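Following up on my earlier message about pyridoxal-5'-phosphate. Here are the inputs again, as you asked, copied directly from the submission form:
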Amino acid sequence: MNHLPNSIEARDAAVHMHPYTDARALQQNGPTVMAKGEGVHVWDTNGKQYIEAMAGLWSVGIGFSEPRLVEAAAKQMAELPYYHTFAMRSHTPAIELAEKLIGMAPKLENPMSKVFFTNSGSEANDTVVKMIWYRANAMGQPQRKKIISRIKGYHGITIASGSMTGLPANHGSFDLPLPGFLHTGSPHHWREAADGESEEDFSKRRAQELEEMILAEGPDTIAAFIGEPVMGAGGVIVPPKGYWAEIQKVLKKYDILLIADEVINGLGRTGNMWGSETCEMQPDIMVSSKQLSSSYLPISAIMLNDKVFEPIADESNRIGTFGHGFTGGGHPVAAAVALENLKIIEERDLLGNVREVGPYMQEKLGALTAHPLVGEKRGIGLIAALELVTDKQAKTALEKPGALGARVGAAVFEAGLICRNMGDALAFCPPMIITKPQIDELVGKVEGALDQVAGELG
Ligand code: PLP
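Thanks, got it. Here's what our run produced:
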């Protein structure tokens, strides 16, 4: 054990099983225990300061110390600390948040008209699957239940959302995906295009592969396609030119619903309020969480259009209920905090900041592609990744996948910067309040870590 007996780290390792963690490594090394946050910074219990360049888990959009969210929570706690929205009940925070989200939704051919609240991105996506199955039955199409997602897509970890996720760590040992969940190719041009294949041609090929999958399965068995406008946890993959236009052509041809997973993209991250706007998508369902409350409290929201809602409403009337919902769904305190958070995003024009500071971060990180260990910089707005390589030509890293990412990630952490190594990619998704001098500091720390590891590798 690398931590002192009875230390906070030892106490954690003794009793606390962590998500997304090597449990044995945690027992051996203990966690880093965080104690406080302010703006774009957090401090651990030893007093060390870090720039939180992942905004927690892509989520603390407005920064770590907003008193207005504390006040909003306290006020709601005092007034009505809990109520639910089952069986013809409601409360003002849920109503106001739903109105606000419908007002903020993109201007679409089939506009979003209803909001259903859940507590996490995974719960929201699981709920979406059940809504789609319920709708198919309502429409007399019980065979139309399959859902297509993408390799490298991330939609959560519950049984259904984990089935839609397209990453090996979420499948193998968990016996996922369930039958009926299909995965088509990722939009990662740099990694997956053929030699000399343009972005446009690659996009067309991906759409053609999607159509082939639909035809092979039977178009009348496919209910929906889910995608993050810009992929997040799969490595921050910005779709290549023409990608969503080509994909949507195929979906339209076979009347397949489009679900935009906006859990990371939403509320400003890509330089528009929604990734669907950035990527010119026409979703039927949009899923939002994380920056919805800046993760001060757990909450997620599913927005749907009438095409989705109406058959569900009819079926619920026929049966007597839409038999689905969570005790904490649309929790009044979380909803009040989310509402205040959205007001702050608008009042402080954080979208304006993303548009101003985002290109600066992209340019500064982009300059690091001159470094021998950086193969590609990807990103848009205030979300980015560097793909690390040891051989730029072959686009390969160290023999063990993820080892180079882990080494550079550790050096970055040591330097007081938190980013996320996902395989051999390093991701950046700082709070949307970050300034240019803070970005200079962030990029300086990354460069220092890259130099250090390059030096060690010789
Ligand atoms: N969808 C996307 C795009 C995500 O990035 C995540 C989490 O990172 C989820 C869904 C799952 O959200 P949660 O961790 O709140 O269940």
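One observation from looking it over: The pocket of pyridoxal-5'-phosphate is lined by residues 57, 120-122, 125, 154-156, 228, 232-233, 261, 263-264, 289 (CB under 6 Å). Hope that helps, and feel free to reply on this thread.
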